[in-house]
Amino acid sequence: MLAPERHELILRSLRRHGRLRVAELSAELGVSAITVRRDLAELDSAGLLRRVHGGAIGTSPAAGPSQGSQLTVGIVVPSSTFYYTDVIRGAEAMADRYGARLVLGVSGYDVAVEQERLEKVLGIGVAGLLLSTALGDERAAEVGSRLDGIDVPVVLMERAFGFPHAEREYDHVRTDHAYGAMLALRHFRSLGHTRIGINLNASVTAYWLRQGIAQAAETLGIDLLISPVVLPARGEDPDTIAQLDAFLDECESYGARAMLVHSDEHAARLVERAMERGLRIPEDLSVIAYNDETAALAAVPLTAVCPPKLMIGETACELLLRKLQAAPGRTPATQHLSLLPTLKTRISCGALTTTARP
């Protein structure tokens, strides 16, 4: 059956029932669910129906969303605290400007919980979705399968998944963390450091930081110690002192008097332990943290790379809303946007200056 024939049957069925489901259409037309979703997307772009989670409902160009209309947009993130607090605030502020409503789901970095939150948020009939998945880059194929099962426009936040792991490309807005790593290492180099210790926690961000670290080392001519030691963020773990000492001992043996530590909590705890061992900050040890959530509150205020968290939420939400409010047949092109972090210099690196960029 040709696409025009399928489209006619889909519209005829919609006029009869008022709402369609992908699974039912797939069985009725004898084609795959992917083909049905593609047909619905084309008809949605033409303003002949409106796609919703699991299928489509009737609409017309005149009834389409417009500036100031009460759209409902879903946002699913791994956490509602620390890093994602500002991301959510940014998305909420932009939704308010457009007169849209934001519905939040939090996964707690649990993949199974994330699926439940997605189903609940999509089940209320949101027009589009902002998503920061708990799945990392090493599980790109699984992310792609999950994304391809969502029947509303999706904008990824702080993630970058797409073709060939997914059926199609997806809009994304993310921090250029590789640039952030280079920003920190260049600052160290400007202070005369040529041997630098690196400690990254296990996170999606670490993948991008490693890229920037490798590029910076080659460009700037610096030697790096990338430590396998897992640093504790807090002091409750009985092995805390041993872990902190292991990393400090590594850096001392390597001759590294500068450290880039992801994230703030780990860096703050490390500075405390270094001072307990008699080291002066920054005279004996220069430290830059990554994230700038609580860096300014450390015992020694930490110089930190600051991702544009608020702007991530604002930009992603505006990108989604513009796509949802586009005129029928004029859907905006898919966009991959990278926003640059800044460096906030404080006492811990020994160079209290204005915000720097290479």
UniProtKB/TrEMBL annotation:
Q: Which PANTHER family match?
A: ALANINE RACEMASE, LACI-RELATED TRANSCRIPTIONAL REPRESSOR
InterPro entries per the UniProt record, alphabetical:
DeoR_HTH, LacI/GalR-like_sensor, Peripla_BP_I, Tscrpt_reg_HTH_DeoR_CS, WH-like_DNA-bd_sf, WH_DNA-bd_sf
Q: What is the name of this protein? A: DNA-binding LacI/PurR family transcriptional regulator
Which UniProt keywords are listed? DNA-binding, Transcription, Transcription regulation
A molecular function annotated in GO for this UniProt entry is: DNA binding
* SUPFAM superfamilies linked: Periplasmic binding protein-like I, Winged helix' DNA-binding domain
Q: Does the keyword DNA-binding apply?
A: yes
PROSITE patterns listed in its UniProt record: HTH_DEOR_1, HTH_DEOR_2
Q: Where is the HTH deoR-type domain?
A: 3-58
